[in-house]
Structures are given as C-alpha cells and as structure tokens.
Amino acid sequence: MAIPIKEWSKLEVRAVVRFLFSKGTKPSEIHKQIAETYGEGAMPRSRVYQWCTWFGEGRTSLGDDPKSGRPKTSTDEENTTQDDLISELRNWFDNLDVDFFRESINSLLSRWQKCIDLHWDYVEK
Predict the structure, then answer these.
(1) Ramachandran region, residue 39 (left: φ > 0; alpha: ψ -120 to 50; beta: rest)
(2) What is the pLDDT of residue 83?
(3) How many CB atoms lie within 10 A of CB 17?
(4) Global confidence as pTM
(5) Dihedral angle at the C-alpha atoms of 18, 21, 25, 31, nearest 10 degrees?
(6) Mind listing the GO molecular function terms for this protein (predicted)?
(7) pLDDT higher than 60, residue 78
(8) CB of 48 closer than 8 Å to CB of 16
C-alpha cells in the first residue's frame, strides 16, 4: 500500500506521468497509481491521457504552455488556480456553438420525459 504524499507540485506529478509512460505503463494505470499516491485531486484521468498523448508526440517539457490574453496579476497560488479555472471555463463556453446548448437541453428534456413515462423507473445505459 502506497503512503499518500500530501504535498506535491503539478510538475512533480507530470514527471511521474512521463516516467511511467516512458516505461510503457498505460494511462489508466498511471492515473490509478497517481490517485493512490497523491490523492484523487492530483490529476484528473482526462489530463493523464492528455499528457500521455503529448509525451507520445515527443513533448519533453513539463511546464505549462504560454497562454494568450491578459497576464496574471495575482501571485497567490490559490487565487491563480481559481483564476485559471474561471478563464478556461469562459474560453470553453465562449467557443461552444449555440446548438450545443440546444441539443443538450433537448436531450435532458427527452430523458426527463422517459423518467416520467416510466414512473421514475428509467436508467439510461
């Protein structure tokens, strides 16, 4: 059983991903080992897959790519992380087509109607 590491940096976790990926470890197993050692919040499964893809394409840098837009003004680690999250979410939503929202809402409505029609005994598979 792994001894959890409570203090870590994202560069450290990325280095572990790179190391394990270079040894031929599958991304799902890499995520499992990271979650066991660093905790579930260390790196989401999708991000492990993304980093494995980048390393497979020849990337060697563990650092973040430069970002466009206004430079960060906050120096506090927690605020910076929150600012990054808000910025990423805004960019993601701004780049979505209106049809994405329309289709998603219609999909929810149809599932809701199925639940009602089946007297709440409906699970989508």
Answers:
(1) left
(2) 76
(3) 26
(4) 0.54
(5) 50
(6) nucleic acid binding
(7) no
(8) no
